[in-house]
Every structure is written in C-alpha cells, then in structure tokens.
Write a structure and sequence with these properties.
The chain has 493 residues and is mostly helical. It is 68% helix and 2% strand. Strands 1-2 form a two-stranded antiparallel sheet. It is found in: Membrane.
Length: 493
C-alpha cells in the first residue's frame, strides 16, 4: 500500500514554499505565453507539415486535408490543456504532471509519469537538436560555408552513405587491429551546450532570450503566410483528402509532435510571480495562438505547391524555391533555426525541474535538488540534462527519438486529465483559480482522444515505450522506494 500513498495538496504546497530549495519567482503571464509559443512552434511546423501531407515510405498522407489533421490534434491538445490549466492553478509546483499524479494517484504512478516525462523533454530534445543541426548546416551553406559531412551527421545516416564514410577521418585501435570512422554532430552538441549555460545563469535571462526568439519566429511565419498567399493556386487543393479519413488521422498522429510543449509551461510554476492566474493564461493562450498559425500555414503551403511534392525536410522553404523565390526560402530557413532553438531552450528548462521535484521527494538523490547560490536555478540537474541530451544528439538518429517523445507525452496527457477527475472527487474543497469546464466531459474527451492518437503510433514505438517504463520501475524499486520521504515520514508516525 506504500506504493499508492498520496500527498495532500496542502502538504505539497507547504514543502515547495518551505526549506532552502526554493526557486526565484520572476515570470509573468506574458513570459509564460512566450515560453509556450517557444516550445510549440519548432521543427513540427517547419518539417512535419510536409511529411504528413505527402506521406512517405511508412505512412499515407493527408494531402491538403492536413488542415483537418491540425484541427483534430488541436482539439485533443485543447482538452488536455484545460486539464493542465486547472491542476497548474491548484498546484503551482515545478513538477508538472509528476506533482499532479502524486496528489491524484499516489507515489508509484507519480514516479512512472516523472520517468515518462524524460521522454518528452530530454529524449524529445535529442530529436530537436538533430533537426536544429540540419537547418543550421543548410543556413550556413546559403552563406557559402560548408561544414565537413562527418561533423554534421549521425552514425545511421553516415554508415549508409559511402560518400560520407569515405570522407570521415579514421581512428586506429591497435589492440583490436581495427580502424573505425569518426562521426560527430558538432552543431547539435554545441547548441545544447550553449543553451545549458544560458539556463544555469538564470530563469529571467532564459525567458528574455526566449522572448526574442519567439518574436522572430512569429514574424517569419507571418511572412510565409502573407507572401505565400499571393502564390496560392486553388487547384492544388484537389483532391482535398486523397486518402480519406485514414490519411487525416495518420496525419493527426504525426503532427502531434508540432503541438508538444504547452505543458512545459507548468514546469516553471515555482518561478512564476502569480502562478494561480498566470499559468492557465500562458497554457491556453499559447495553444490558441499556435493553432491559428498552424492552420494558416497549412492552407497556404498546400495551396502553393501540390501536396505530393512536400515530402522533404524543409517544406516551407521548398514551396518558395519551387516558385523561384530563393531569397524567401532563405528567410524561412533562418526562421526554422530560430524556432528550434527556442524549443530546445524551453524543453531544457523543463526537464531539470522534473528531476528537481523528484529529488525533493527523495525519489532521486538529494544532489539533484541543489540550487545555485547566486543564480537560484537547479544547476546540477540543468547540467546533467545538458549532458544527457548533448552526447546522444551528437551521434543518434532522429527518427526513434521523435516517436518515443510522442507516446511519452500522450501518456502524460492521459494521466493529467485523469487527475482532474480524481481530485474533483477527493479534494472538492480545494480552491481552483481556474476550473476545467464541462467536467467530466472534457477530461474524458482528453483521455480518449490522446489514447486514440497513441494507438495510431507503430508497434515498435509501444515496445520501446514499455522497455523504457520497465527500466524506470527497476530504478524506483532499487532506490526510490527506499528513500521516499513520504514513506519515511509515514513510517515514523
């Protein structure tokens, strides 16, 4: 029964406000909205829009009906966002879904979701860092700067490219009598290292850095929509849904990656000036703004160029290149670099705060919860996350990381939505500064829609997800349950 012992809401709030491990409150509703937009608008809209429209080797495309796919995914995320907003206003704590699950389901489920969130923030950032590197290399090429291929690629792509393989330097291992090629994605490693330094310095400085990038990416997307609208050909929208409902739903599952991030706002709760009011505003406002932009981009993109030509890494830039506006394609490529930088920043901000909350509860070693004496940031976990992301990003393939991120995030959405139902029943007296409307309908719709999207993911993704959870359970039973402060406290009393 220890496994399902819960923390009361008053206990969670008291622990966060008391003691030495307190974070600096510096963020406003505007800062949170900017963080949300910074997290959401990234590689998803700049890359997956084309892939989901055109289809490819492993899935069928939605065609111009990708607009419907964006709306369906936005509804699923919207239901989940309303649930996040209620729980964030009740529990303005940095642990996000981990903390909510501790109050609603108990420690065992809280550990599972805390471990699962690593898939969203850390593993997701590995994929984003690799994507950032690809855009950055293309941008440099536009200025006449070409980096060696072996310094900008992963092992999977390099080993399948005889040209890259031949150009790579070789390392001789005398004791094995072998020579191995060297590959290292330097831009991916470097950007994670840079962002880690920024986040250690301080949340206020990180937020300002993010706000500048958000302003740039919004201008770039508006530029694409306005300029591209003059080159729309309505005949490109026919047939509208070439693969019917199946294509639309497959597209919805793929473009879900483009929406990941609004929940990261809740990880900054303890650094928000007025969390009960500002957190719901930031979560809902960022989702609404990005959804409107996504729909507009999808309409213009599929109108500029036939959907069958969009299965490329840079569909927005490709659309301008096809009509001869190479200068506009360069501007869009710059926007993609800025956008993915902002995503990296917000996700790198989120993961350390999950570790921080778990360590504060004793489920991870106490040094995970150390606060920098000058900057008042969780610097140990920030540096640890930077290492965890930077090293795999220098070598890994983007595909597997992105799939794991999707299923991990959807699982977190399901549990968070369920938490609203549980806490409405177990803690009806707790003040809610924001209430999810139409309970239980909205939470149930969030659970069903997110689980349906999970079922749309490949079987291999489910297998990897289950293996990841089993690893987490092993750590919990070897370390976490023995050092849990909640269990220790209740055993003494």
């Amino acid at each position: 029964m220890h496994l399902f012992r819960k923390k009361s809401i008053s206990q969670i709030l008291a622990e966060a406000e008391g003691g030495e491990n307190r974070l600096k409150r510096a963020l406003s509703a505007f800062d949170l909205t900017a963080l949300g937009i910074g997290a959401i608008i990234g590689a998803g809209i700049f890359a997956l829009t084309g892939t989901a429209s055109a289809g490819g080797a492993h899935h069928i495309g939605a065609g111009p009906a990708i607009v419907i796919s964006f709306i369906i995914t936005a509804l699923a995320c919207g239901f989940a966002a309303l649930c996040y907003a209620e729980l964030a206003s009740m529990l303005p704590i940095s642990g996000s879904a981990y903390t909510y699950s501790y109050a609603a389901f108990g420690e065992f489920i809280a550990w599972i979701i805390g471990w699962d969130l690593i898939l969203e923030y850390a593993v997701g950032n590995i994929a984003v860092a690799i994507s950032w590197s690809a855009y950055f290399v293309e941008l440099l090429r536009g200025f006449g700067i070409t980096l060696p291929a072996w310094l900008t690629t992963d092992y999977v792509r390099a080993l399948n490219s005889p040209e890259i393989l031949a150009s790579a330097p070789k390392l001789t291992l005398p004791f094995l009598n072998k020579t191995i090629p060297i590959f290292f994605n330097l831009p991916a490693f470097g950007i994670v290292a840079l962002i880690t330094v920024v986040l250690v310095i301080g949340i206020r400085e990180s937020s300002t850095f993010n706000a500048v990038m958000v302003a740039i990416k919004l201008v770039i997307l508006l530029f694409f929509i306005i300029v591209g609208a003059f080159y729309v050909k309505p005949e490109n929208w026919h047939p509208f849904a070439p693969n019917g409902w199946k294509g639309i739903m497959t597209g919805a599952a793929l473009v879900f990656f483009a929406y990941i991030g609004f929940d990261a706002i809740s990880t900054a709760a303890e650094e928000t000036k007025n969390p009960q009011k500002d957190l719901p505003i930031g979560i809902i406002a960022s989702l609404i703004i990005t959804t409107i932009l996504y729909i507009a981009v999808a309409i213009v993109l599929t109108g500029m160029i036939h959907y069958s030509e969009l299965n490329v890494p840079e569909p927005l830039a490709k659309a301008f290149s096809v009509i001869g506006l190479n200068w506009a394609a360069g501007i869009v490529s710059f926007g993609a670099v800025v956008s993915t930088t902002a995503v990296l920043l917000v996700f790198q901000l989120g993961q350390p705060r999950i570790f921080f909350s778990m360590a504060r509860d004793g489920l991870l070693p106490q040094w995970f919860a150390k606060i920098h004496p000058k900057f008042k940031t969780p610097y140990v976990t920030t540096i640890l996350t930077g290492v965890f992301v930077a090293i795999p990003a220098a070598f890994a393939d983007i595909g597997e990381a992105a799939e794991l991120t999707n299923i991990g995030t959807l699982f977190a959405f399901v549990l968070t939505s369920g938490g609203v139902l549980i806490l409405r029943y177990t803690s009806p007296e707790t003040k809610r500064h924001f209430k999810t409307p139409l309970v239980p309908i909205v939470p149930i719709l969030a659970i069903l829609s997110c689980f349906y999207l999970m079922l749309s993911l490949p079987l291999i993704t489910w297998i990897r997800f289950l293996i990841w959870l089993l690893i987490g359970l092993a750590i919990y039973f070897v370390y976490g349950i023995k050092h849990s402060k909640l269990i220790e406290r209740e055993s003494k009393s």
